[in-house]
Amino acid sequence: MTEKKSFILYHDLCEIFAELTDEQAGQLIKEIALYAKAITHNNPQKPIGLSGLLNAIASPFKNHIDRDFAVWLEKRETNAENGKKGGRPPKKKNPNNPVKGVTATVTVTDTVSVINTKQKNIPQVLAPDWQAYAKNNNLNPQQANLEFEKFTNHYLAKKEVYDDYLPLWRNWLLNYRPPKDTPFKPQPKHGMSRKELNELRLKQAGLV
């Protein structure tokens, strides 16, 4: 028994049923069903057949069943052969007919100037108005330049970008604390005697 479980009745052929009586239509559909089962199940016992007009009407139905079954058998044998070879072989590509859905990638090389917005907004040099705020906070030029360098390094390292950095500079100066003067402490020298080292320690401690 084959694996085919169905057959097709085409609409253009089925229009003939409207011209038949119910008895004739019943005999015709029974004949077609028995014939399809005999063919698709490889059964040698085919229907006896109709006579006269009904036999002529049944002939196109049987021809379609025969053709459809032959196509099905060919397809089944092809699938069986492909299965032995590991599956359906890939389709050959036609260079004159590119496959739809394939995206071509084009590489374009160009020079792009990238502007660092932080560097763009932060002045590269201490502007006069910025110097004025530093001077108002009792910073001399050397201290102002040092704080400006700390300020720019701090905000260039941050991820945030600001439209105006002058208010931030003013706040930075408000938090400025001048460095405390560190008293000079004499350091020991190589080759000093024990007495000299003791005198040096007393000086460092502020006892002399």
List the helices and strands and how they pair.
Layout: H1 11-14, H2 22-40, H3 53-84, H4 117-121, H5 128-136, H6 141-156, H7 166-174, H8 194-204
Helix pairs in contact: 2-3
What can you tell me about this protein's structure?
By secondary structure, this protein is mainly α. Among the domains are: 11-84; 117-174. The protein has eight helices and no strands. The chain has helices spanning 11-14, 22-40, 53-84, 117-121, 128-136, 141-156, 166-174, 194-204. Helix 2 runs parallel beside helix 3 (53-84). It is rod-shaped and about 145 Å long. The model has no long low-confidence stretch (mean pLDDT 77).
Q: Helix and strand succession?
A: HHHHHHHH
Radius of gyration: 51 Å
Structural class: mainly alpha
Low-confidence stretches: none
Number of strands: 0
Mean pLDDT: 77
- Helix count, DSSP H or I runs of 4 or more residues: 8
- Shape, principal axes of CA atoms: rod-shaped
Biggest sheet record? none
- Helix coverage percent of residues? 40-55%
Assembly type of the chains comes to: single chain
Distance from N terminus to C terminus (CA atoms, Å) equals 121 Å
Strand content: under 5%
